[in-house]
Specification:
With 269 residues, this protein is an alpha/beta fold. It has helices at 2-20, 31-44, 60-73, 88-91, 97-116, 136-142, 148-151, 156-165, 191-206, 230-233, 236-249; strands at residues 23-26, 48-54, 76-81, 120-122, 212-217, 220-225, 253-256.
């Protein structure tokens, strides 16, 4: 029954895109928007367009992923520039940060959608996302953004299963998030803080860790990795190397978190 249910949801996803006739996919390179783009491309061909918005909050390594994935799928792709740091309400970094970020994004993508006369604008929100603290969903609703994975009733685990079956190369890629999510709430976001976090996480990925977060709490770094990788993080030589590097980047202190990565950990002060 589970197999039949999943096949039915995939068929429903295909029908949704066929009914849309043409679509702009807000494409981040994550597994959710990748599945959305793959099915949109299969259903609509050149009437589907992936658009990736690049800004100081978007890690460069994720941009590399987006270009590679779009090429694998064979879809059309456009990269646009935006800068949430020009939005004062975003910079102040309160609980509404994601709302202001997504408002900036969807205003840009909505204008492009109208310019190109594409009938729908869609994102990669799945059913499980609806239970998280994500003010960005409210912005999506305000701008008429549709969430085909939600409409088809697909959970995160089902998205990964379908992505694996469709041979998408990022089917098991760890979840990514906007760099601003690493900055402690109610402390202003700056390009310097974002750059420091990005370089710190790139260093950790270069050390072979799969899932990393470097949280910035008023200049103090807290390093999180997957729970299975915590023992390696705590190895004295490697831990010292990580600590030294992050201090060189300008962090006042460095904590290697023994609890491991926690989704939404940046929402806690």
């Amino acid at each position: 029954m589970k197999r039949e249910a999943l096949d039915g949801k995939l068929e429903r996803l295909h029908r949704l895109f066929a009914d849309m006739e043409s679509v702009l996919v807000a494409f981040s390179g994550g597994i959710d928007s990748t599945l959305v783009l793959k099915v949109a491309q299969d259903a609509l061909g050149d009437r589907a367009l992936a658009v990736t918005a690049v800004s100081p909050t978007f890690p460069e390594i994720e941009l590399e992923w987006t270009t590679r994935l779009v090429a694998e799928i064979g879809a059309r792709h456009r990269i646009v520039q935006t800068d949430q740091l020009q939005v004062p309400a975003f910079v102040q970094n309160d609980a509404g940060r994601c709302f202001h970020c997504k408002t900036d994004l969807y205003q840009l993508l909505g204008g492009l959608q109208q310019e190109l006369k594409l009938r729908a604008l869609v994102d990669g929100t799945n059913l499980d996302d609806l239970g998280d603290e994500r003010p960005g969903h409210a912005a999506a609703r305000e701008w008429g953004v549709r969430s085909p994975l939600v409409e088809a009733g697909l959970s995160k685990s089902e998205v990964r299963e379908l992505a694996r079956e469709l041979k998408l190369s990022n089917w098991n890629k760890p979840a990514a998030a906007c760099l601003s999510s690493r900055i402690q709430r109610d402390t202003p976001i700056t390009v310097e803080k974002l750059s420091r976090v990005e370089r710190a996480e790139a260093f950790l990925l270069g050390q072979g860790f799969r899932q990393v977060r470097v949280r910035d709490s008023e200049g103090a770094a807290r390093v999180e990795v997957e729970s299975t990788e915590v023992p390696r993080l705590m190895e004295p030589a490697l831990g010292a190397r990580i600590t030294d590097y992050l201090r060189q980047l300008g962090f006042a202190s460095v904590t290697l978190d023994p609890s491991g990565y926690r989704q939404g950990g940046g929402n806690k002060t």
